Amino acid sequence: MTVRTRFAPSPTGFLHIGGARTALFSWAYAKKNNGAFILRVEDTDVERSTQESVDSILHAMDWLGLDYAEGPFYQMQRMERYKEVIQQMLDAGTAYYCYCSKEELDQMREEQRTRGEKPRYDRRCLHQQPRDGVKPVVRFKNPQDGVVAWDDLVKGRIEIANSELDDLIIARSDGTPTYNFCVVVDDLDMKITHVTRGDDHVNNTPRQINILRALGATPPLYAHLPMILRDDGQKMSKRNDPVSVVQYRDMGILPEALLNYLARLCWGHGDDEVFSIEQFVEWFDLNNISPSPARFDMKKLFWVNAQHIKATANAKLIALITPQLQAQNIVLEQLDIDAIIELVKARSDNLNTLAKEVAYLYQPQTPNAEELAKHMTDDAAQVLNNFASSIEALNEWSLDAIKALIKEFCVSQNIKMPQLGMPLRLKLCGTTQTPSFDAIVYILGKNNVLARLRA
Fold first, then answer.
1. Which H or E element spans position 18?
2. Residues 300-340: pLDDT tens digits?
3. pLDDT by residue (tens digit) across 114-145?
4. Angle 437-444/399-413 helices, nearest 10 degrees?
5. Which residue among 15, 99, 197, 367 sits deepest, i.e. has the most Cβ atoms within 10 Å of its Cβ?
6. Cα distance between residue 185 and residue 8, in whole Å
7. Please, are residues 196 and 5 in contact by the beta-carbon 8 Å criterion?
8. What are phi and psi of 289, to 5 degrees?
9. Distance, C-alpha 172 to centroid of its chain
């Protein structure tokens, strides 16, 4: 059997972080088993679906590197196929027309509640003749006896009594098919073998299995992923939490770091915390997913991101932050950008911070008043003036020579290292939060150091 998985977002908004994890697991399982990962856009909610959302989802998938073998397929382009299958089911007797009005249905449910019964459609239209002037819906003739069961790859054995299920509407009165029906036909036509999705779809699964069996098909294997919660155990919300994949990109998170972190939400491989996407694919299996809800720890994500930044080639990091630097009119050729990245990347847990660390070496930032008052005293100004003279007299420009000079200078001036380092950092970079100042001096070069000290 060729493994075929799918990711099927609805384009009613951005790609949610939970959706990204679902896509990742589906993608990884297909990769692990030399299968095919299919992207399907479920856009039948015409009122809420937008092209902007479609573009946003496709862009997020591309940024994450979750490539798909087939698609994107759009449900709105498959309407004729859905209507064809509905007619087949009507002809086979596994579906039927329902002419009931809303008022009739409301009265039926109220009577059932009065009798202490669970409200469900009572099949009063199963053998009814057409009503003039009434456009009927189409209902699926759900089995009335027995159970529908499946061995969920995450949650284990699940059984639902068919008596608990209603005769689901599969086509509205205007002829448009409903969500659960479209999903079934798509999974059937696309030969999906494994469905990975959030556990909010568990209630849809027995209905979809019954429809698939009515069509003579073998249902795929299902893996329902637990919810991702905030670190405090509450649900993540658009108002209080960054839930869009694009937001994490804008926060300076590397896509490989985000995938690494998402992989660890309900899945793990021993004590391994940081790994490549290739390593994840090699280790991954749907059976290793925990059914318990995951908790999203923002601090842990940034820690993982920092590890990936350290491991990323300097050339790639330079390319990623260049747009931010160019927006500040920084000309990278003025300094050794590779050496700068090597110096500051261990201090950065996101690309935005990395860009700032680089920027102040090219263009000193404006110091805040508190640091100026604390470190740029008259005595400090005299120390810096004397240090400039020592730098100007230095013949060998190497890191070792600069370290030796700084040590000798502090002895000769009878000062401690911070009495030089703090004002020197402020003068050269506009901040005291920098790497070791001997490395700063070396990277800036003699001319830049003297120009900034004497400015």
1. helix 17-32
2. 999 999 999 999 999 999 999 999 999 999 999 999 999 99
3. 999 889 999 999 988 889 889 999 999 999 99
4. 120
5. 15
6. 13
7. yes
8. -85, 135
9. 34
